[in-house]
Design a protein that fits this description.
Elements (H helix, E strand, L loop, with lengths): L9 E8 L4 E6 L2 H9 L15 E2 L10 E2 L2 H8 L4 H11 L1 E6 L22
Antiparallel strand pairs: 1-2, 1-5, 2-3, 3-4
Length: 121
């Protein structure tokens, strides 16, 4: 297993364009995905970043990602078995590596423009 893409400032997602919606699975790295495609005995846990299947509401690979509902998985794949669906997305989807612009988190609102002094003052 290689060093995670997010540790290198990148995010690799596998985009699957379905008939009813677009789905994404986040993987650790393109190298891990390629190794899994050659050797399916590699556990999915070493390939995927999370066992969460994302949906972009037909907005393509760059659309807002939300967790896919069981109903949307059933409609598209005929099952809600996430392991089976993840395997299909990894096999048939298109990998894309994008830079991660910043770490998620909250910013310090007290340092924002137009804000003076302590908020409780």
């Amino acid at each position: 297993m290689t060093k995670s893409n997010t540790a290198r400032g990148n995010l690799t997602k596998v985009f699957y364009k379905g008939e009813t919606d677009d789905f994404i699975v986040i993987v650790e790295s393109p190298e891990d995905l390629a190794a899994w495609k050659k050797d399916k005995s590699i556990p999915l846990a070493q390939v995927v970043n999370s066992f969460k299947i994302m949906v972009t509401h037909k907005h393509g690979a760059q659309g807002q990602m939300d967790g896919a509902s069981k109903a949307s998985l059933e409609n598209e794949f005929g099952t809600s078995d996430e392991d089976q669906i993840i395997r299909k997305i990894l096999e048939e989807g298109q990998p894309q590596t994008v830079p991660v612009s910043e770490k998620p988190g909250t910013r310090n609102e007290t340092k924002g423009a137009g804000r003076q002094g302590h908020p409780n003052a």
